[in-house]
Amino acid sequence: MKRKVYSVIVAAVIISTLFLSACSKNDNKQTTTNSSGTQGAAETAVSENTPTPAETKADSSKDKVLNWVASGEVTTMDSGKSYDTISSEQIDFQADPLYRINEENKAVPNLAVALPEVSKDGLTVTVEIRDNAKFSNGEKITAADIVYAAQRVVDPATGSQSANNLSYIKNATEIIAGTLKSEELGVKAISDTKLEFTLVAPNSYINTTLSSTLLSPVSKKFVEKQGKNYGLTADALLASGPYVLKDWNGTDISWKYEKNPYYWDADNIYFDKINVQVVKEVATGVNLYEAGELDGTKVTGEYISLYKGKEDLVSVQTLRMTNLEMGISSNKYLQNEKLRKALLYALNREELSTAILNGDGIPSVGVIPNGIAVNPDNGKSIADDFGTLVYTDVKKAQQLFKEALQELGTDSITLRLVTSDTDENIKIGQYLQSVYETNLPGLKIDLANVPASVRFEEMMSYKFDLALGGWTGDFDPTSYIKQHEEGYEHNHSQWKSKELKNLVTALETTDGTDFSKRWEHLKEANQYLVDKAVVIPIVQASQSYLINPKLKGYVTHVLGTPIDVTHAYIEE
């Protein structure tokens, strides 16, 4: 059944889009805006005050189906190896974390029966899990399955690109380095339902930290049976969460999920099936949505203006940073600090945010997103306390570029910029190309628009010039600094700095209970990364969607999956 649409306007926008493409804590609250223009903290779910699935009447004689979208191909469905947002969003359907992040962006018990118990010294954390949890093959989930999941992530043999995300657990760093065995990781099963974590240092974010799907239960028996194929196809995956993956062979651009009958909370899972298809072009997604073939799709640019004031439009301001990353270790030109600074100051973030993204994002003020935390002493935000460190100064950029050319002994430089082949990323890439070539005569930018999986591979090879990347850390601001620490998997530039490493070490250890000192170290690290132009922050991303107004019960998040539909339902 087709929705009522403004067909002539939509068609016009789609045609123009195709043409353009061809041309080539004080309060830690983010805002969530629905199409009626009302705003509230991102802690408030869009679907507030609606009935629960159990209260909603539906025709039980036919399957309840959600038609959803992914913005690119999935690289892996292995919860222990996932490192990109596209894969992580899909893993959320079938991997069950200890805690879920609710509509208030707080951790709430999920597979765990209660929030963790923390010892007085902050170093021992105990978690009790449900005794009725099962994998999708009917086998019981025990604490040992979570211990194995964690050990597997840090084991160098696994090759997880997220291993350092567990470095807060005792011995993780040494295991990753190969000096200790994975069995020596500071997590153990006290019983079938009780876990004990030993931390390196007190962690004030432990509740949300333990919500990671890296700690979702994994069956050792099943993994060993599948071998290297584990997580690469639907048949080589065992679900612990609400849905079971079907019809995915590792490269498909469409797949589906079926309700997991063994899931401990199956009675509160509404949909029997979720059909997912990869849609990279916004115009295509809008067409499918308007035809009633999708219940939700991402929109950007002119479509945000087109649907403004309509109940379908939902926007979420996130803590995800869109950055221009540089292959400093692999490109001799980019090893010149003045060239990197020229790229930093030549960019007009305000223009990009308004003219290209149509307000779907706010200009970055530094490496750490504004709104993630506040100064514990005066309540000032990141922007107010740290200041706007990244800004536009074309004359300064041109002088720096001139000096860089002289130091490098050349009169021109060509850099390749790789972006994902989605509408939004292509447009941002074209904008960067135009701005840099205009503001910095002698600089040529060659664009390469590739599938997201190819971009990820290039960045993880650490051999590239420029890449349009994004970084979604966690609720601890340190995660945005740690990305650039020597030895961290996602330090794509391969930047090496003893000064930065010492700051990260302090943030993760001795600063655990000294919040004022921690804030000063965050400020210092943020300033350092900008001064050295290790990365070029562009915008703090918003995510806008068209969502079927009958879809209720979904949750919006400032971090991770912006729209979580695992417990959503259709209001009949």
UniProtKB/TrEMBL annotation:
Biased composition (Polar residues): 26-53
Bilayer disposition of the protein: Lipid-anchor
Key words, A-Z: Signal, Transport
Protein name (Swiss-Prot/TrEMBL): Oligopeptide transport system substrate-binding protein
Region (Disordered): 26-62
Domain Solute-binding protein family residue range list: 107-479
A GO MF term: peptide transmembrane transporter activity
Transcription listed as a keyword: no
Cleavable signal peptide: 1-22
Pfam family, one: SBP_bac_5
InterPro entries, A to Z: Peptide/Ni-bd, SBP_5, SBP_5_CS, SBP_5_dom
Matching Gene3D superfamilies: Dipeptide-binding Protein, Domain 1, Dipeptide-binding Protein, Domain 3, Periplasmic binding protein-like II
GO CC terms, sorted: ATP-binding cassette (ABC) transporter complex; periplasmic space
Subcellular location per the Swiss-Prot or TrEMBL entry: Cell membrane
Single GO biological process annotation from the record: peptide transport
Membership in a protein family: Belongs to the bacterial solute-binding protein 5 family.
PROSITE patterns, sorted: PROKAR_LIPOPROTEIN, SBP_BACTERIAL_5
